[in-house]
Amino acid sequence: MVNTVKPKKFLGQHFLTDLTVAERIADTLDEYKSLPVLEIGPGMGVLTQFLIQKGHDLKVVELDRDSVAYLGKNFPDLKDRIIEADFLKLNLDDLFPGEFCVIGNYPYNISSQIFFKVLDYKDRIPCCSGMIQKEVAQRMAASPGNKTYGILSVLMQAWYKIEYCFTVHENVFNPPPKVKSAVIKMTRNDVKELDCDEKLFKRVVKTAFNQRRKTMRNSLKPILGKECEIFADKIFDKRPEQLSVAQFIDLTNMIAPHVI
């Protein structure tokens, strides 16, 4: 019997030890019992056990061999549903033919990359929830005008409703991280398409926030050149954190004919 797994710093592992917190995370998927679930980074299964208890059709993906061995020994019913792989490199079409949900105590060093991958499957993932660094959670849920509002806020909120569920103290982990954590829940909104060039939309958002202290007029010069005629519009007086998702969509359409 594999008794325990030693947390590995290079994998960014901080194992949750508080069962109450784990159960509350599992609760975020209660309304999706009919859909299969993919848990990312189960570690020693503190969240996994509650997902199983709740009757979810569960698969887990884990990169750490020691954790894979632990899960195989301690969760025998899960044995054929443990995928030893890097989530970021997985083709999720091979795992799920239809809709599915995503959950996890996500590795903090790659959480943004995980969510951007979720966006690639947004029409098949109606809900994604789990625990991340508090600062990232605040950024994802931030409203326009907030200093934490940024690239992640706009790109995620274009497709998902972001709910900041609750804060988690660092003392419920082994080892304790140096930052506080938070649980978020992302629920797919009704948007089917953005009514703009989505590739250009991403480019505009990223270019604008890469120089977030500048006005849109200055930050978007790499896309539009220095003397673009549409710079006279008042929207270019604003800074990127002042624009809503809808305004970024409108801006993208305005910019499209003038891209250099």
Can you describe this structure?
The chain has 260 residues and is an alpha/beta fold. The chain has two domains: 9-188, Rossmann fold (3-Layer(aba) Sandwich), CATH 3.40.50; 198-258, Helicase, Ruva Protein, domain 3. Helix content is 31%, strand content 17%. It is built from ten helices and nine strands. The longest helix has 12 residues, at 198-209.
In short, what is this structure?
By secondary structure, the chain is an alpha/beta fold. Helix content is 31%, strand content 17%. The longest helix has 12 residues, at 198-209.
Secondary structure blueprint with pairings:
Elements: E1 15-16, H1 19-27, E2 37-40, H2 48-53, E3 58-62, H3 65-74, E4 82-84, E5 101-105, H4 111-120, E6 127-133, H5 134-141, H6 151-157, E7 160-168, E8 173-174, E9 181-188, H7 198-209, H8 216-219, H9 221-224, H10 245-255
Parallel strand pairs: 2-3, 2-5, 3-4, 5-6
Antiparallel strand pairs: 1-8, 6-9, 7-9
Key terms:
alpha/beta; elongated; 260 residues; seven-stranded mixed β-sheet; 17% strand; single chain; 31% helix; 9 strands; two-stranded antiparallel sheet; 10 helices; Rossmann fold; Helicase, Ruva Protein, domain 3; 2 domains
- Average of per-residue pLDDT values: 94
CATH architecture of the largest domain: 3-Layer(aba) Sandwich
CATH superfamily of the largest domain: Vaccinia Virus protein VP39
Evaluate the radius of gyration: 20 Å
The helix content, as a percent range, equals 25-40%
Shape field? elongated
CATH topology of the largest domain: Rossmann fold
Number of DSSP strands?
Answer: 9
| Element-level helix/strand string | EHEHEHEEHEHHEEEHHHH
Largest sheet: 7 strands, mixed
Low-pLDDT segments, ≥5 res: none
Helix/strand/pairing category: alpha/beta
Number of domains: 2
* Main sheet: strand order: 4-3-2-5-6-9-7
Beta-sheet strand percentage? 15-25%
- Overall CATH class of the largest domain: Alpha Beta
* End-to-end distance: 62 Å
* Helical stretch tally: 10
